[in-house]
Amino acid sequence: MLAQTAGAKVEGAIIQHVQRLNHAYYMGQGKVEELAALREEVGYNLVIFDDELSPLQQRNLEDALEVKIIDRTALILDIFAKRAQTREGRLQVELAQLEYLLPRLVGQWSHLERLGGGIGTRGPGESQLETDRRIIKHKILRLKDEIEGIRKHRALYRRQRTTHAIPVASIVGYTNSGKSTLMNSLSKASVFVEDKLFATLDPTTRKIMLPNLQEVLLTDTVGFIQKLPTMLVAAFRATLEELDEADILLHVIDITHRNAAEQSATVEQILQELKLANKPRIEVLNKLDLAVPSESEMGDFISKNTTGGKDSVLISAAKKWGLKALLEKIAFVLSESGSHNRGYVE
Ligand code: GDP
Ligand code: MG
Q1: Domains plus CATH for the chain?
Q2: In this structure, what are the phi and psi dihedrals at residue 3, rounded to the nearest 5 degrees?
Q3: Helix or strand or coil: residue 192?
Q4: What is the rounded CA–CA span in Å between residue 25 and residue 66?
Q5: Vertex 216, ends 209 and 290: CA angle to 5°?
Q6: Cα(181)–Cα(319) distance, rounded to whole angstroms?
Q7: In whole angstroms, how far apart are CA 264 and each of 55, 149, 249, 346?
Q8: pLDDT for 266-314, tens place per residue?
Q9: Residue 173 alpha carbon, nearest atom of ligand 1
Q10: Is the pLDDT of residue 340 over 50?
Q11: Which residue from 1, 67, 157, 205 lies 20 to 30 Å from 60 (Cα-Cα)?
Q12: Distance from the CA of 295 to the center of ligand 1, in angstroms?
């Protein structure tokens, strides 16, 4: 699923259960030979590992199989790179990419040279590899500085927002559940108030108006993912820091996905880890257009498939079904939780 999200066409999958991971190749020698034979047969040009590989394992496998090897970290980095929307998000991804690249640099320097590192930049007595490492380390430091700058800026912007006392609704959910689509549809469906300050500071925050004329700031977030590689946890959490500010969370779930329940549980677990589990929350059950033929039949789906009790709304973000009900529910939950009084009580 992740591989398809990143744009790869999957030819086949191999699962191996091992007692002990092979230090040099990750998998056993037999499997390496099997994979090599398979290459003769189907001619694949990329192998993706659904786990983290050490730089050594990755290099050894590339030598043995003579194709590009990607591990789970690289794959998710690629997805993050395509999806990251905020400036900080993009910088965080770039930082993670460089940190990933650094220990894997051996023999890769020719890429960098072509990218313009090359002639003239090499210090006295330095090999190209050392130069590249130095350039990358320097870049990593600069990125960290820049990210720190954005953080400070954001803290300032948060303080301003608090004094404005506009409630914040944050869209969370598993990757590919339809968060960005919902963000776009909601901005169009409700009165979209162009706000230069917000627009320039953070392109994924929009101000919208609820049916009761209350204004709400809507924010989009990076998708949640199961088994997030360790080196991506920091980048992922940093981009979710802003969720602290949320008055309400809209948890988008792709109900047509066969792992919908598992994905939803993953999101709930991460919310708990981020200590956000007690925020008011609406479950937004999305992609109903794939389950019923028209908006008017969403009601039938409700009576057949939901147990009731929870704050959930059925929608199709793509077809803009159920958005009015969702906006009304947001207004209701906000009034219940007293967020409309923010600013008076503070
Ligand atoms: P995100 O990763 O959660 O931001 O998900 P996106 O908004 O990028 O959507 C992921 C994919 O699901 C895209 O191909 C969307 O076109 C599709 N999608 C989103 N919402 C709907 C929906 O309501 N119905 C259908 N059929 N597809 C949807
Ligand atoms: Mg998105």
Answers
A1: 2-7+16-78 (3.40.50.11060), 165-336 (3.40.50.300)
A2: -60, -40
A3: strand
A4: 14
A5: 75
A6: 10
A7: 33, 34, 13, 34
A8: 999 889 888 898 899 999 999 999 998 888 888 777 666 655 446 899 9
A9: 3
A10: no
A11: 1
A12: 17
Atom number in ligand 1 closest to CA 220: 4
What residue ranges line ligand 1, CB within 6 angstroms?
Answer: 173, 175-181, 223, 286-287, 289-290, 316-318
- 80, 86, 176: residue to mutate for ligand 1 pocket, most atoms within 8 A of CB: 176
Rounded Cα gap, residues 173 and 249, in angstroms: 10
- Ligand 1 atom 25 nearest Cα: 287
By the 8 A CB rule, do 217 and 254 touch?
Answer: no
Choose which residue among 174, 181, 255 to substitute to test ligand 1 binding: the one with the highest number of ligand atoms within 8 A of its C-beta.
181
- Closest listed ligand to the CA of 172: 1
Please tell me the distance from the alpha carbon of residue 315 to that of residue 320, in angstroms, as a whole number: 7
Residue 312's SS3 state is strand
pTM above 0.85, yes or no: no
46 near 68, Cβ under 8 Å?
Answer: yes
Write the burial class of residue 104 (CB in 10 Å: 0-12 exposed, 13-18 middle, 19+ buried): middle
As to burial, measured by CB atoms within 10 angstroms (0-12 exposed, 13-18 middle, 19+ buried), residue 172 is buried
- Two tokens at 236? 């992922």
Q: What's the CA gap between 314 and 252, in Å, rounded?
A: 10
Cα-to-centroid distance, 131 and ligand 2 (Å): 37
pLDDT tens-digit series, residues 18-52: 666 677 888 888 888 888 888 888 888 888 888 88
